[in-house]
Amino acid sequence: MSAFRARITAFFTAFVFLTAALPAYAERLPDFLAKIQPSEIFPGADRYGKPEGKPMVARVYKGDEQLGLVYITTDAVNTRGYSSKPIDTLMALANDGTIAGAKLVDHHEPIMLIGIPQSRVDKFIDKYIGLNFIKNPPTPGVAPGDIISGATVTLMVVNDSIQRSYKVIANQYRLGSDKALQTASASDVREAAPASETRPRRMANPDKQDILSWDELLKQKAVGHLHITLDQINKLFEKGGKAGVADHAEQGDPDDTFIDLYVALVSQPSIGKSLLGKDGWAHLQKRLKPGQQAVLVAGEGRYSWKGSGYVRGGIFDRIEMIQGENSFRFTDAQHERVVELSAADAPRFKEVSWFTIPEGVAFDGAEPWRL
After folding, report:
1. What's the rounded mean pLDDT across residues 149-161?
2. For a disulfide at 92, which of 42, 226, 291, 301, Cβ 3.0-4.6 Å?
3. How many CB atoms lie within 10 A of CB 325?
4. Strand 88-94 relative to strand 65-72, pairing
5. Alpha carbon 338 to chain centroid distance?
6. What angle do CA 283, 364, 361 make, to 5 degrees?
7. Mean pLDDT, the chain, as a whole number?
8. CA 270, CA 338: separation in Å to the nearest integer?
9. SS3 of residue 328 by DSSP
């Protein structure tokens, strides 16, 4: 796979649904602070304050001067790597929001344990030091350093967890303001919260079981859709500013389809029965445990959303589910191939599958999510 395609997932992270917040709050920070001197992560610091707050942080000091704070990304957002286990990065943020330090402190990624030198990963993470996402917000999914070939998924997860956890911490502790490091009050949090956090809780309607056509499903937005042409994908990469992108541009008619991607929550009866048919729906029900959800992904075009990584490693490394501050990838154990969709007038797709949401993952199908 070309370097151009290795980075393509960065541009799909905004698909499909805007998201609600579901904080992680794992509180693993104290375990790591005991092993790392303050000056190792925050230049000039000589002591940590007591870990506190949700998400948990520790203030850092030089003498009596408060320099900023440190936190673990997985205490703020729930992200999992290729191994389906957390990747912990210790972050140091100055009062104004500048990243003063970043250090990978724990992971279980096979490629980084046996193939990629730690020094190369450290060099990738060092690119974040000195950046200020308050003054210069990052492009979602785009890392400041080049992704290392062979560790694409892992480093994209690291980038995603740094970007999203930064936003959570900066908002919660008011970095960049004259009230920096003051935890926002409940009223302030409510004032700043998106509508999805303050409105009444949504509930899926299991009684809605109408059989709908493909066009009706699209019209009701029961099926999410993303279409990207060769021209659009080439321009997206040009905007990313990476050196050498033009050398790897997709060739062909600019209007040709790069990917035509669809997703749907097929554990909802009306959607599932419409797309899978009677027998397909019955088969899905046998796989689902009480309360478990499932999503369907279908695609066509030059780019394969499945890829081939799952054949070798069992992980579908080109797609990621995100809801709030939680994210996860699917494995072959949750995968079921679909030959064709049953909805009237549904097109035939080169790749169609449904996935059960992994057990132990907090996922609410009635709340916004994205792929």
Report:
1. 70
2. 42
3. 23
4. antiparallel
5. 25
6. 80
7. 80
8. 18
9. strand
Better-predicted residue by pLDDT, 322 or 134: 134
Classify each residue of 107-139 as buried b or exposed e, where b means 16 or more C-beta atoms within 10 Å of its C-beta: bebebbeeebeeeebeebbeebeebbbbeeebe
Give the pLDDT confidence score for residue 18 in this predicted structure.
33
pLDDT at 206 over 70: no
Q: Helix 152-172 vs helix 118-126: angle between axes, to the nearest 10 degrees?
A: 40
d(CA 347, CA 290): 31
First and final C-alpha spacing in the chain: 22
Cα–Cα distance, 166 to 69 (Å, whole number): 11
E strand map for 251-308? 257-265, 294-300
Check residue 289 and give its pLDDT: 93
Output the 3-class SS for 109-132: CHHHHHCCCHHHHHHHHHCCCCCE
pLDDT digits (tens, 9 = 90+) for 67-78: 999 999 988 887
Residue 245 confidence (pLDDT): 63
3-state secondary structure of 227: strand
345: left (phi over 0), alpha (psi -120 to 50) or beta: left
Contacts of 206 (CB under 8 A, 6+ apart): 268, 269
Does 284 score more than 60 pLDDT? Answer: yes
Rg (CA), the chain: 22
DSSP, residue by residue, 41-106: HSTT--EE---BTTTTBEEEEETTEEEEEEEEHHHH-B-B-TTSSB-EEEEEEETTSBEEEEEEEE
Which DSSP symbol is given to 300?
Answer: E
> Which pLDDT value is given to residue 247?
65
How far apart, in whole angstroms, are the C-alpha atoms of residue 112 and residue 334? 25
- How many angstroms from the chain centroid is the CA of residue 313? 20
What order of strands is seen across the sheet that includes strand 58-62? 47-48, 58-62, 65-72, 88-94, 99-106
Q: DSSP secondary-structure letter at 291?
A: T
